[in-house]
Design goal:
The complex is a heterodimer of chains A (about 110) and B (about 120). Chain A is built from no helices and 11 strands. In chain A, the strands form 2 sheets. In chain A, strands 2, 4, 5, 9, 10 and 11 form a 6-stranded mixed sheet that branches. Chain B is an all-beta fold. Chain B has no helices and 11 strands. The radius of gyration of chain B is 13 Å and the shape is globular. The N and C termini of chain B lie far apart (about 35 Å). Classes of the chains: A mainly beta (about 110), B mainly beta (about 120). Chains A and B meet through strand 4, strand 5 and strand 10 of A and strand 4, strand 5, strand 9 and strand 10 of B.
Chain lengths: ~110, ~120
């Protein structure tokens, strides 16, 4: 089963612009994670935010978490062509132990 | 960072044959590994949780007799797709987490299975 929905499903921007992706989930979570996947490749862990945190930064990435709305957002600032990939949020729930339940993903295209 | 490998990276087989996919944690011991399946342009779906020394836990709708999981050592889990059919064609990805590494998971590069 899938936990959440990502919004938008696809996003096309120019280099230098910011990209914002949103994720909503359904059940209580321990933490929420964002992953990146280049076409046909494995996943790369980007950032983890715990249920008691509201905002976290890592380089050009900024993640927010609103547990009251069961939603999270990923902001990539000053995007680069190399940021072109699919981005997924994933949650760890009590039910699934440490298994990740993924959202549907956002495909980001950054053109130079 | 931790490295998880998968083998093979791509496999093409005939309908009715069985295919084994290996997932190895290269620099840490993983008591638990996870298997995911990803169809084209879709997200990852958790198939099963592989537990070292015990039976795997399968997600609802995943046939345990079709997708055999063996986790015989702390660094190796295998997924065997038995009597594969074209609808089993997919991207199979494993992941593992360090015993003391919290909830961060390390993903293998995936295996592209094509069943003719």
């Amino acid at each position: 089963s899938q936990q959440g929905e990502e919004d938008p499903q696809a996003l096309s921007i120019q280099e230098g612009e910011n990209a914002t992706m949103n994720c909503s989930y359904k059940t209580s979570i321990n933490n929420l994670q964002w992953y990146r996947q280049n076409s046909g490749r494995g996943l790369v862990h980007l950032i983890l935010i715990r249920s008691n945190e509201r905002e976290k930064h890592s380089g050009r990435l900024r993640v927010t978490l609103d547990t009251s709305k069961k939603s999270s957002s990923l902001l990539i600032t000053a995007s680069r062509a190399a940021d072109t990939a699919s981005y997924f949020c994933a949650t760890v729930t009590n039910r699934a132990g440490t298994a990740l339940i993924f959202g549907k993903g956002t495909t980001l295209s950054v053109s130079s | 960072g931790a490295v998880v490998s998968q083998h093979p990276s791509r496999v093409i087989c005939k309908s009715g044959t069985s295919v084994k996919i290996e997932c190895r944690s290269l620099d840490f011991q993983a008591t638990t590994m996870f298997w995911y399946r990803q169809f084209p342009k879709q997200s990852l779906m958790l198939m099963a949780t592989s537990n070292e020394g015990s039976k795997a836990t399968y997600e609802q709708g995943v046939e345990k007799d079709k997708f055999l999981i063996n986790h015989a050592s702390l660094t190796l889990s295998t997924l065997t797709v038995t009597s594969a059919h074209p609808e089993d064609s997919s991207f199979y990805i494993c992941s593992a987490s360090r015993p003391s590494g919290g909830d961060t998971q390390y993903f293998g590069p995936g295996t592209r299975l094509t069943v003719l």
